[in-house]
Design brief:
686 residues; alpha/beta; Aldehyde Dehydrogenase, Chain A, domain 2; 6-stranded antiparallel beta sheet; binds NADPH dihydro-nicotinamide-adenine-dinucleotide phosphate; Phenylacetic acid degradation bifunctional protein PaaZ
């Protein structure tokens, strides 16, 4: 990749690069700091229907050949190739106004999302194509009829419309879960930073790792998009609430439309967090980060600082000191610059318009100036940059906290308002006035205050960060969504869940309740259900993954439990709980007929009953899950165990896989004593 961008930015469609033959009317994209043209975008003549069709046919077919784990392994490979070429992406991002620190969120953040989804996909999803939701539901007394919820991928295309502020992270946070689910993506970046999106897509294309049709990129607008979308397709939109509303109205029935739109996020300073406390310092530091990172162009940035009565001046003074000490505004290519411009002069003008609206609605400028700031230029000189999109940090005070403007107007730049509250209830109420936010943070070391506020704000937020002295150093921060947790928010924030671990993957899949016999459900899900066929030809511990099949079973002989065994186990382990050692006390307990065997004794014995001791393909037992003791075992009772291969998960990158065994301990009356899953690692080959 060279530093010179093509005069018109190509799209990657139908597994090839495409540029319009007619460049008339192409939109010019400009450098955020200097206003110089960088490239142009246009989709004039692009056959959008063919692009979507390619995703639904070729993309669906190639992704459908892969299991969750195979897709997850590819995500890691994508992350690795992008990681190796980060410098190119940083350099390009500078042209869209991003400093090196901003690129940590966008470039490294995007790569991080791929790594996280790769690892979560392999740990939390089966190495299969169907995902099971919850346990089987018995629907007939004799076990011959069951119900189960399964997730299968949507058959269409994931159309991802992204915002200008995170051309890489914002796209990859949608692409990663869609890819893992097996749904092909069409990425439509926002025009002002489309050249950064083109760069990461180009790197992936050059890696030759992308399954055919799994990723397409449209550099430019998508007129008529909604005419081509229907049931089984998804739209994930990030941008302004007004565009989201307009597009949502155009989406046909059955199109899964979610949006992540501008939100008036809040940050509460607790009453205990007075000047000099670690919470006060963490609060001010966080405010600085949120004002200046990406020049405040973050969907999660703090727009409303909600502080105890009388504390506005202290917060603003502390913030001023930090800004004076640390913030150098300028061209991200210049040495020492810590805060870049907004993405475009259009955005700058829009932000200044919103600031005017806030001031006109009763706001008072407590810090900063709306005049064009003197900035550090690329050559190191300092002065005005009229063609750059620079805005200095601005803090606005609102004496009237009920002014609707402060809760409704988003100035999408380095702008925050300060409001004072009287008590926890009012602080929570002010947060809720935002009409649904992506995130609120609460800086307090007082758990009772946090709990009261939380009960008032949880329903209005996608995420809440509790900041105090114990986590301030390690906290990922107010404005940094993490792939493990939900990123999205209710109401005005759009209702989407772009991130949130496997939840975001399932968003690309359909949940269906399937009813049938154990045999049918076993065949359909690849997981053995009690009542389905079994095979007991030889001990399953002697079989490698190449030979083992679900339903392979071992049924042990019986072993009698004596009082002596129980006493020995109690003395040996130190577990002398009265139910095992004191006949009278045990009999007085409503659950026991008298002294009973320890559950752990039975589970240990069960292992002794089912194990095949010789060296073989079973490599390790790595745990038990879902252990339940159901019927107590008294001295004189006998137990036996059946062990059935329930689920086999070969690991893509290792010479072994996981086998989940269904274990059932029964007594001499065939009553179920205990049930659990035994988890083992088994070699792929003998
Ligand atoms: P827009 O809502 O105008 O654009 C967002 C995305 O939607 C862009 O990719 C844009 O493409 C696309 N788009 C616009 N119209 C259509 C359409 N008819 N069909 C399909 N796609 C369309 O937001 P902006 O980027 O202009 O930002 C404006 C405001 O949005 C900001 O000031 C801020 O308030 C908010 N915002 C919120 C963000 C968040 O993360 N929640 C992020 C960024 C902005 P194109 O660029 O080609 O027009």
């Amino acid at each position: 990749m060279t530093d010179i961008l093509p005069s018109i930015l190509p799209s990657f469609v139908l597994d090839g690069w495409w540029t319009p033959s007619d460049e008339d009317g192409a939109t010019v994209v400009r450098d955020s700091s200097t206003g110089e043209p960088v490239t142009r975008v246009s989709t004039r003549g692009l056959d959008l229907a063919a692009v979507l069709d390619h995703a639904r046919t070729v993309g669906q077919a190639s992704l459908g050949e892969l299991t969750f784990h195979q897709r997850a392994v590819l995500l890691k490979q994508f992350a690795t190739v992008l990681n190796e070429r980060k410098e190119e992406l940083y350099a390009l991002s500078e042209r869209a106004g991003a400093t090196r620190r901003d690129s940590l969120s966008d470039v490294d953040g995007g790569i991080g999302v791929l790594f996280t989804y790769s690892s979560k996909g392999r740990r939390e999803l089966p190495n299969a194509r169907v995902y099971l939701d919850g346990p089987a539901e018995p629907l007939a007394k004799d076990g011959s009829f069951l119900g189960r919820h399964i997730y299968t991928r949507l058959p269409g295309v994931a159309m991802q419309i992204n915002a200008f502020n995170f051309p890489m992270w914002g796209a990859l946070e949608k692409f990663a879960p869609a890819f893992l689910a097996g749904v092909p993506s069409v990425v439509k970046p926002a025009t002002p930073s489309a050249f950064v999106a083109e760069a990461w897509v180009r790197i992936l294309v050059e890696s030759n790792l992308l399954p055919a049709g799994s990723l397409q990129l449209i550099s430019g607008s998508v007129p008529g998009l909604f005419d081509h979308l229907g049931l089984g397709d998804l739209v994930g939109f990030t941008g302004s609430a007004s565009t989201a509303e307009r597009l949502r109205a155009q989406a046909a029935d059955g199109v899964r439309f979610t949006s992540e739109t501008d939100s008036i996020n809040a940050s509460i300073l607790g009453p205990d967090a007075t000047v000099g406390t670690p919470e006060f310092d963490a609060y001010v530091k966080q405010l600085l980060v949120e004002l200046t990172t990406k020049a405040g162009q973050k969907c999660t940035a703090i727009r409303r600082a909600i502080v105890p009565q009388g504390l506005t001046a202290s917060v603003v003074d502390a913030l001023r000191a930090k800004i004076d000490e640390r913030v150098v505004i300028g061209d991200p290519r210049a040495e020492g610059v810590t805060m870049g411009p907004l993405v475009s002069v259009e955005q700058r003008d829009e932000v200044l318009r919103q600031v005017d609206a806030l001031l006109g609605a009763g706001g008072e400028l407590l810090y900063g100036s709306t005049d064009a700031p003197a900035v550090t230029r690329a050559d190191g000189t300092v002065g005005p940059a009229p063609d750059g999109a620079f805005v200095a940090p601005l803090v606005i005070g609102f004496g009237d906290v009920d002014s609707p403007a402060v809760h409704e107007i988003e100035a999408f730049g380095p702008v925050a308002s300060v409001l004072e509250y009287a008590d926890a209830a009012q602080a929570a109420e002010l947060v809720a006035r935002g009409g649904g936010s992506l995130v609120t943070s609460v800086a307090t070391h007082d758990a009772a205050f946090a709990a009261t506020v939380m009960s008032g704000i949880a329903a209005f937020n996608g995420r809440v960060l509790l900041l105090d002295r114990d986590d301030a150093r390690t906290s990922t921060g107010h404005g940094s969504p993490v792939p493990h947790l939900v990123h999205g928010g209710p109401g005005r924030a759009g209702g989407g869940e772009e991130l949130g671990g496997i939840r975001a993957v399932l968003h690309h899949m359909q949940r269906t309740a399937v009813q049938g016999s154990p045999e049918m459900l076993t065949a359909l899900t690849g997981v053995w259900h009690p009542g389905a066929g079994t095979r007991s030809d030889r001990h399953p511990f002697r079989k490698s993954l190449a030979e083992l099949r679900i339903g392979d079973q071992f049924a042990s002989g019986e072993r009698e439990v004596t009082l002596d065994d129980i006493e020995t186990f109690a003395a040996f382990t130190g577990d002398t709980f009265y139910a095992h050692t004191d006949e009278e006390a045990a009999a007085a307990n409503p659950f026991f007929p008298g002294r009973v065997a320890h559950g752990y004794l039975l589970v240990s014995w069960a292992a002794g009953l089912f194990v095949d001791p010789d060296p073989g393909p079973v490599l390790a037992n790595y745990g038990l899950e879902n252990l339940r003791f159901i019927t107590p075992v008294s001295p004189g009772d006998s137990i036996r165990v059946t062990l059935t291969a329930k689920q086999i998960t070969p690991r893509e990158t290792d010479e072994y896989g996981e086998v989940r065994w269904d274990a059932v301990i029964l007594n001499q009356r065939d009553e179920t004593v205990a049930t659990y899953d035994v988890l083992t690692l088994v070699a792929k080959q003998p």
